[in-house]
Fold FAD-binding oxidoreductase.
Amino acid sequence: MKSIIHRNSQLYDTERAGFQRLALHEPDLVVPAASPEDVREAVAHAAAAGLPVAVQAAGHGLPVPATEGLLINTNRLSSVTVDPVTATARIEAGARWHQVIAEAARHGLAPLSGSSPGVGAVPYTLGGGLSLMARPYGYAADQVRAIDVVTADAEPRHVTPGDDLHGDLYWALVGGRSNFGVVTALEIGLVPVERIYGGALYFDAGHAGEALRTWAAWTASLPDEMTSSIAIIPFPDAPQAPERFRGRTVATVRIAFTGGAEEGEDLVRPLRAIGPRLVDTVGVMPYTASASIHDDPTEPAGYYATHSVLRELPPAAVDALLDVTGCVVEVRHLGGALSKPQSYPNSVGNRDAGYSASLLSPGLAPGTDTTALRPAHDRARDALAPWSTGGRLLNFLYGENATPEEVRRAYEPADYRRLAELKAEWDPRNMFRLNHNIPVS
Ligand SMILES: Cc1cc2nc3c(=O)[nH]c(=O)nc-3n(C[C@H](O)[C@H](O)[C@H](O)COP(=O)(O)OP(=O)(O)OC[C@H]3O[C@@H](n4cnc5c(N)ncnc54)[C@H](O)[C@@H]3O)c2cc1C
């Protein structure tokens, strides 16, 4: 192997660090992969040495951190090319969404990227991928056209939907992610979107309850072209918070409408009537400006998060959310194309979901003991239980919460059984276990 980094190397800390800083992977070895061949060699080395393998791109989705084994860092494997004729992009394992958004926009196209353009496009997509345009276009995973992957036998494979040679490997990888191999590149479909009617409305703490109630009722009768979410954020009085919101709690409704501006304005009117807006950025914007909709943090930090997948969001569920204190509450509206049949079936679950409700404790110092945070998160999840599907979104399972029991909830029961069987076929030694693991059945 060209390059391999040990625990005592000066490069060890930088090569293992990603966006999540609460706890980091602590593998025995790190391979900074710069080519698909580097990935193949790393997997071959791990297989021969009997080492478990972890893989990391931007590191927003760190699961239970590895304490052993080999970590493949894909940051250097990050090219993006767009084919405007087929409206597809080929994205390498370490590419970030902002790269894909910029390349696609040159051809009047857009990817199904999410709230933060700093997230790794490949892990996001293989974990489902809940995009800003989720309701008109479905999960980002539904756009996967081809996969280049190195499987546990260290073989590079090109996998497509309905592929006779590789059986169900496509179905398993799209949703099952690194349980079935290390993906070196994806080919994904892009959508013909240059502009959206979108942005965010911010309300002060005194209107947060009304904002959540109004938004929840409003989502009951929207066209699929409208994707939205709401967050109630208690900003700390600290430099990492936007200056205008420091020390304040605000409610923010985020909008991305792929229909016309006039219709968008009509649809958003009831939200604008909630009360005085601290900020209103909703208008026609190029998709390249879509990061401003959620305005997610861009600096690496520690965070603890939990979520529930909800069937519906009646007033009693809204009240349960309004009882939460001390953490960020975010609710995303699902449904639309997320619930419709896909052109290329995959193992992503939660097709019956109406909403996702997340709780986030951000700004945690590395090594923070999360014991004191858990009760508030658990109480909120218990309070939402009457409306919960019991499901989980794989992409929103972080750190200590990414246990095999929680991972199981990301899939339909029959799909999970099939994934466990395929795991036995493709990775019988569970070499790929330092992840959102599906153990061998
Ligand atoms: C601020 C923020 C905003 C977010 N917004 C959204 C959103 O809008 N929608 C949404 O769906 N999710 C969202 N997420 C979740 C995010 O999509 C997932 O955490 C995703 O895994 C992040 O990709 P990454 O490269 O940053 O993560 P990483 O931590 O690098 O990867 C996560 C996991 O993916 C697997 N993986 C990584 N590389 C490969 C590979 N090459 N082959 C196979 N498996 C691999 C590994 O198991 C790894 O542990 C958000 C997260 C944060 C922190």
